[in-house]
Design brief:
Elements lengths: L3 H32 L26 E3 L6 E4 L4 E4 L2 H8 L2 H11 L4 H34 L10 H8 L4 H5 L4 H24 L4 E7 L8 E10 L4 E11 L5 H14 L7 E6 L3 H4 L5 H8 L4 E4 L1 H13 L4 H15 L2 H13 L17 H11 L1 H15 L2 H7 L1
Parallel strand pairs: 4-7, 7-8
Antiparallel strand pairs: 1-2, 2-3, 4-5, 5-6
């Protein structure tokens, strides 16, 4: 028989063993649960959205990373970041980004600076081209002695003729501007260049008085010199001097003053030329005598044209008056009537004669007589036929006289 104490002891041991077994099973179950792998969370990569470039909070600094479409580029920080719009907005509030952004606002972009510099150079070059064109147009007006009023229409015409020219479109050279360019720019430059040439070379001076009807008397001073650049003799206006009277002493003083103002040595002047008036060619008190005092070796030449005119005038006295009257009558009969001019033109065509007008003899320029005679000889066949038909048609005494 088993005692009660033994039974109780055995029951206690069995219960303890059962409890330990159950605890081991729980631990094993826990270990099995921990040993199972956890399920990973899925992450989605954000790609760059072109709409961000129009977002007012991002457009100033964000750009697409060309190497990776899942990243965006910060122009301020000059770095590439991964993430979506939320990450971009978060980056925009970063203190380093804010500091760099504020610094960039006060710094001129190099690309913009270069671009603005290029545009500025282009505008300057265009403006210089326009000014050069206006200078050349003004020089053309001065060279050909055209009225300033031409410039009221010429720039507009050039814009129509050359619609694709930016220079023509920008030109605004009117009458007043042309006058200012010539008077204040071209004339002083040309005068300075002429003075510098005459300071270094020998030259002659030609003088002549004004022939207009104004109250103010003027004397034109022209310099004649050899130009190495053009390789020919050139005549240039040195000045238009106002003189109170045509006395030799006054004219001599004005010429000396003009040379002194332009710093031109009087020793460089080796010759003078003017007309044959006594005030100029007088051997005692004339301008020639005064010039010889300063330079005894200076060459003084009278007007060759006037001298030849006097020779021609004296020689023409030996020609019978009938020839002089003939050339005058022919001109007066035809050229004073538009109807006769038209009729004479028909006879020029019939006789195959050149369609030239008849010339008039100048009363004070006897040298013009040669050109008048040569023109009549050229038109001789047409004149004979014309006056013959004119006499037959109307029995004109003038036509009969010319025909005979």
């Amino acid at each position: 028989m088993i005692s009660l104490g033994e039974e109780s002891g055995s029951s206690t041991e069995s219960s303890e063993s059962e409890e330990s077994d159950s605890d081991d099973e729980c631990v094993d179950e826990r270990m099995n649960v921990k040993a199972k792998p956890k399920k990973k969370k899925t992450h989605y990569k954000h790609k760059f959205n072109s709409d961000w470039l129009s977002d007012k909070d991002l457009q100033k600094w964000i750009r697409k990373d060309e190497k990776d479409s899942t990243r965006f580029m910060c122009l301020v920080c000059n770095k590439s970041y991964i993430g979506g719009k939320t990450h971009a907005l978060r980056h925009s509030k970063n203190k380093f980004h804010v500091k760099n952004f504020e610094a960039k606002q006060h710094t001129t972009d190099l690309a913009n600076l270069c671009s603005s510099n290029v545009e500025f150079k282009k505008s300057v070059m265009l403006q210089k081209s326009v000014e050069n064109a206006e200078l050349k147009l003004s020089g053309f007006i001065a060279e050909h002695n055209l009225p300033f009023r031409v410039m009221e229409h010429l720039p507009g015409l050039l814009k129509i003729v050359f619609p694709d020219s930016v220079i023509a479109g920008k030109s605004t050279c009117g009458r007043d501007k042309t006058r200012n360019i010539i008077v204040k720019k071209l004339a002083p430059d040309a005068d300075q260049a002429l003075s510098e040439k005459l300071q270094k070379c020998k030259f002659s001076i030609l003088l002549d008085e004004s022939t207009d009807k104004s109250v103010v008397k003027s004397m034109a001073v022209v310099a004649r010199f050899w130009c190495p650049q053009l390789k020919r003799v050139c005549d240039r206006l040195l000045g238009l001097v106002k003189v109170p009277s045509a006395a030799a002493q006054i004219m001599k003083g004005e010429v000396d003053k003009l040379l002194s103002v332009k710093n031109i040595p009087k020793e460089n002047c080796i010759g003078f030329g003017w007309d044959n008036a006594s005030v100029n060619m007088g051997e005692v008190t004339g301008l020639k005598a005064l010039v010889k005092i300063d330079n005894p070796y200076v060459i003084v030449v009278g007007s060759v044209c006037h001298s030849l005119a006097l020779c021609a005038s004296n020689a023409s006295k030996e020609i019978p008056l009938e020839f002089d009257d003939f050339v005058r009558d022919v001109y007066n009969y035809i050229q004073h009537s538009p109807t006769r001019i038209a009729a004479y033109a028909e006879f020029q065509g019939i006789t195959d004669t050149k369609n030239h007008r008849l010339l008039k003899v100048c009363d004070v320029r006897w040298l013009s007589l040669e050109s008048v005679v040569m023109r009549i000889l050229e038109q001789w066949r047409a004149l004979k036929v014309y006056f013959y038909e004119e006499f037959k048609a109307i029995k004109s005494a003038s036509a009969e006289k010319s025909l005979k």
